[in-house]
Amino acid sequence: MSSNTAIKDDETKDPFTEYFVVKSINEQYSVWPSEKEIPAGWNKIEIAGNKENCLDWIEKNWEGPKL
């Protein structure tokens, strides 16, 4: 994601924020707040919940290299 669409750390600390799992055209996964517009090149996956649940889903389902 480019710097103009990156989410600031302080925007991700609200435990009540709903997130979606998003997938890039490069087959990478990330989480994105549901109230924000998804950046170009990323598509929403039909997985939603709090940030921790979305990250858990990515961990269990991503078949790419782990960082």
How is the secondary structure organized here?
Blueprint: E1 19-24, E2 29-33, E3 42-49, H1 51-61
Antiparallel strand pairs: 1-2, 1-3
Written description of the protein model:
- There is one protein chain.
- With 67 residues, the protein is of the alpha+beta class.
- The protein has a single domain (9-61), classed as Alpha-Beta Complex (Rubredoxin-like).
- It contains one helix and three strands.
- A three-stranded antiparallel β-sheet has the order 2-1-3, covered by helices on one side.
Number of strands: 3
How far is the N terminus from the C terminus?
Answer: 17 Å
The unreliable regions are 1-6
Radius of gyration: 11 Å
N-to-C order of helices and strands: EEEH
